[in-house]
Amino acid sequence: xxxxxxxxxxxxxxxxxxxxxxxxxxxxxxxxxxxxxxxxxxxxxxxxxxxxxxxxxxxxxxxxxxxxxxxxxxxxxxxxxxxxxxxxxxxxxxxxxxxxxxxxxxxxxxxxxxxxxxxxxxxxxxxxxxxxxxxxxxxxxxxxxxxxxxxxxxxxxxxxxxxxxxxxxxxxxxxxxxxxxxxxxxxxxxxxxxxxxxxxxxxxxxxxxxxxxxxxxxxxxxxxxxxxxxxxxxxxxxxxxxxxxxxxxxxxxxxxxxxxxxxxxxxxxxxxxxxxxxxxxxxxxxxxxxxxxxxxxxxxxxxxxxxxxx
Length: 310
What we know:
The chain is an alpha/beta fold. It folds into two domains: 27-46 and 226-310, no CATH class; 82-225, Deoxyhypusine Synthase (3-Layer(aba) Sandwich). The protein contains 13 helices and eleven strands. The strands form three sheets. Strands 7-2-1-9-10-11 form a six-stranded parallel β-sheet, with helices on both faces. Strands 3-5-4 form a three-stranded antiparallel β-sheet. The chain has a two-stranded parallel sheet with strand order 6-8. Helix 2 packs across helix 13 (295-309).
């Protein structure tokens, strides 16, 4: 029996995660455990580290944290959704804006403003600018070769924006710079994917995105990994593709998952990591924790706490 300890805010910031773990306070304790697991995972030299997240985070200021994790090579493999490229590239060229959840969506539509939660994204900051900028880049890529993986496309776009004034704010840029593969299994599900289709149907029918080569590279990474760990932010295809591939090496050794989804609806997003043990996607003796909460609140504290320790 471990006694509950009060949090003392007069202590140094670097102690806060440990204090939260010792406080016994529901999600706070899970947060503290999550920091411990991430620290061990990042210090494990033989561990291949996966980062998965959905695109919505890239519309927010958490983009800067995701970027820095790739910039500083905290993770070696990224699995995400098509919209990550939508928002990351669009924000290289245009701003997104503060909005509010209760906005009149009919009025926003009339004004050509898209709402993502409490973020406003004007058409000129999204689809319009992506088509203007992407099509010339795709033409250059096409002239180099016709058959591409998703991670190769990410690298080519990272290279293409290297001279932009905001390039170093970009996830795509740092993925290219550090040659960290970003896999996008749902590549057509977003504005970036639509631009690929638009390019393909406009007299470039021999242009292809070869998802099987993506899977082959993931296979190589997985089967060569002595150990594997993952930080999974939100659910959906990015989370599932991460744990799906790791089942073929008998599961993840380390895993931290943050979600707001309920478990009782049977969804993959709501499934706690303990369920993945039954599938062999996480090892029976793995160090893992599911933390319930909003990633935009938890992630800054999580990564700051880990980096303080490192």
